[in-house]
Write a structure and sequence with these properties.
Bound molecules: zinc ion
Low-confidence stretches: 1-32, 372-380
Helix content: 25-40%
Strand order of the largest sheet: 8-7-6-5-4-3-16
Order of helices and strands: HHEEHHEEEEHEHEEEEEHEHHEHEE
Structural class: alpha/beta
Radius of gyration: 21 Å
CATH topology of the largest domain: Metallo-beta-lactamase, Chain A
Strand content: 15-25%
Mean pLDDT: 88
Number of helices: 10
CATH class of the largest domain: Alpha Beta
Length: 380
């Protein structure tokens, strides 16, 4: 099938008599643009895969790595004292403004409530206490959500990065659909390929299923929003028997005035992040994961740490970023629980960025980005 870039190339070829030298330059520009197209996931025997060009993807750890990981020392050291946790990771009350030009509230882990040009959406909503098939078992939440779903004033759509339990939470999905779904302007769900059936089985009425490089335009309050599904380097499973059967992705939301990027859950894939920056960026705001990176030899194909997060911030051309995917669940990674925040501060400094360019926020904290002057009022 002819893509937009092939059409550009055809156009260039048909006007070749005009000026050969100039044409050669156009050709080069057109072909480099088509090289800039996003990678597609592989799809073999019903399973998705990270393409060969994702050099950091070395596959899932095997049995041997599993044993080595078990023997690795867990330095997470999450305090059992509520008092200590309240001090290190305080909860604050969200201050949602559904009319904001651009604001973001971190609920915890990868859950961010964003209002952009008057549309409100959530990334990977999880309000549950455990992320596992059981509500009483599995990685436990050590910081509670700062508000309930019933406290949300309005949600127009949700983007889901993949089906791991800490990103796709059945009770949050059902509750959000119940509260905001139904009707023409009801809640919409954006999911990567292979997840539509699961969403519908759980009651979601308007589900858009996309692959990398696809976008869907929607109208909210008579304004157009483009929701782009973009590559991420990760994997999927829920039951252990369904590995790679549904896709994983990041998401970019382009409104009439502002642009937002959510990296989802991902390893470092320089080429694709560069393309996201060139093709859809620059972004006014991004949510990028920071945590779950130790031991690196085990985690790095699927998760990044703070230094790589800063690299992504630069590659996607974000003006401001918020670090997520840390400080909420004990996910089984071994870094000290406050280290992602500290290493981010160091990495931001080392990269020569303004210290406000890429930050962590408190659970529940609402940051307004509509007007850069208003940032002064927030905590340091
Ligand atoms: Zn995951």
């Amino acid at each position: 099938m002819l893509g937009a870039h092939d059409l550009i190339l055809n156009e260039v070829l048909h006007t070749r008599t005009m000026d050969d030298v100039a044409m050669d330059e156009s050709l080069m520009a057109a072909s480099s643009q088509s090289e800039d197209a996003f990678e597609k996931p592989t799809f073999i025997n019903g399973k998705y895969g990270n393409p060969k060009s994702f050099l950091g993807w070395t596959g899932l750890p095997g049995l041997r790595e599993g044993w080595r990981y078990k023997r690795n020392k867990d330095l997470s050291n999450i305090p059992s004292s509520e008092q200590e946790l309240n001090k290190a990771l305080p909860l604050v009350e969200p201050k949602f403004n559904p009319d904001a030009q651009l604001e973001a509230t971190w609920i915890g882990h990868a859950t961010v409530v964003v209002t952009l040009d008057g549309a409100t959406f959530i990334t990977d909503p999880i309000w549950s206490n455990h992320c596992s098939p059981f509500f009483f078992y599995g990685p436990k939440r050590y910081r509670p959500p700062p508000c309930q779903i019933t406290d949300l004033k309005k949600v127009d759509f949700v983007v889901i990065s993949h089906n791991h339990y800490d990103h796709l939470d059945v009770s949050s999905v059902r509750q959000l659909e119940q509260q905001f779904g139904g009707g023409k302007d009801g809640l919409r769900w954006f999911v990567p390929m292979g997840l539509k059936g699961w969403m519908e089985k759980n009651g979601c009425r308007q589900v858009e299923e996309l692959t990398w490089g696809e976008k869907k335009s929607i109208t909210i309050n008579s304004k157009q929003f483009d929701v782009h599904c973009v590559p991420a380097q990760h994997w999927s499973t829920r039951t252990g028997f369904d590995r790679f059967k549904s896709l994983w992705s990041g998401w970019a939301v382009v409104g009439p005035q502002h642009r937002f990027y959510f990296a989802g859950d991902t390893g470092f894939c320089k080429e694709e992040f560069g393309k996201i920056g060139r093709r859809i960026g620059p972004f006014d705001l991004a949510a990028i994961p920071l945590g779950c990176y130790e031991p690196k030899w085990f985690m790095s194909p699927q998760h990044i740490g703070p230094e790589e997060a800063v690299e992504i911030h630069k590659l996607i051309r974000a003006k401001k970023s918020i670090g997520v995917h840390w400080g909420t669940f004990h996910m089984g990674s071994h870094e000290p629980y406050m280290e992602p925040k500290l290493l981010l501060e160091e990495a931001v400094k080392k990269a020569g960025l303004d210290k406000e360019a890429f930050i962590t926020v408190h659970h529940g904290e609402t940051r307004n980005y509509s007007n850069s002057k208003s940032e002064e009022q927030f905590h340091k």
